[in-house]
Write a structure and sequence with these properties.
2 domains; alpha+beta; 8 helices; single chain; 217 residues
Length: 217
């Protein structure tokens, strides 16, 4: 970061180490408004704007790589795919991944963005992309920017309600994944789930085989 500021000709800038400490990391710093970066670093308007484009370029490259993972038939592959969408994100987001019977991605929809302490969007917003894509299975996910991966009591309640809505439609819910700081957490490992997994009571399906992540993830 120090070298980048020097190359751009930053004047009257706080030291790079202080900037990183102030924002808690490079991602949040570069996701700042260009006007604020301009004031903090002494860069011109155009150069400050250039800095803010770096995270979006990184997300684009990560998403481009993730698009190669069209078959999301395992927890690890789903987490790798989602990582490209959450990279450097400062705002909470909720994504719905729609899969066919083989676990291939049919549709990826961001259904909510903003302040998401827990997933509470109307189920209709999830059902629309699921039904329009003809999904056989779904993966629900949201992120905790600057936080830790883990499900709240509200997340658990919402997921169980969603299971009941999907059951008569014959649509499988594979997971509710929370992402934070490059790490993921599966709802299957939450101790409050009946039967120890959201697969409890669901019909057997080939996609379920081998899905459950290692304990602690």
């Amino acid at each position: 970061m120090a070298e980048l500021l020097e190359k751009l000709g930053a004047a009257k800038s706080l030291p790079a180490a202080e900037l990183l400490k102030l924002y808690g990391g490079l991602g949040p710093l570069l996701d700042e408004e260009s006007g604020t970066l301009e004031a903090l670093t002494g860069l011109s308007k155009d150069k400050a704007r250039l800095l803010t484009l770096i995270p979006e370029l990184a997300r684009y490259i990560a998403r481009e790589e993730a698009e190669k993972l069209r078959k999301l038939n395992s927890y690890d592959r789903a987490c790798a795919y989602l990582a490209g969408h959450y990279l450097g994100a400062r705002r909470e987001q909720v994504y719905l991944l729609c899969l066919d019977k083989a676990g291939c991605l049919l549709d990826c929809t961001r259904v909510l963005e903003g302040s998401v302490e827990q997933v509470s969007c109307p189920p209709r917003r999830l059902l629309e992309p699921a039904l329009s894509s003809g999904a056989h299975a779904l993966i629900l996910s949201h992120n905790h920017p600057g936080g830790t991966p883990g499900h709240s009591a509200g997340d658990i309640e919402y997921t169980l309600q969603l299971l009941e809505i999907l059951r008569p439609l014959g649509i499988l819910l594979l997971d509710h994944i929370v992402s934070a700081d490059g790490r993921c957490a599966s709802i299957h490992n939450h101790p409050g789930l009946p039967g120890g997994s959201i697969f409890h009571g669901q019909p057997k399906d080939p996609l379920i085989a081998g899905w459950l992540p290692p304990k602690g993830e």
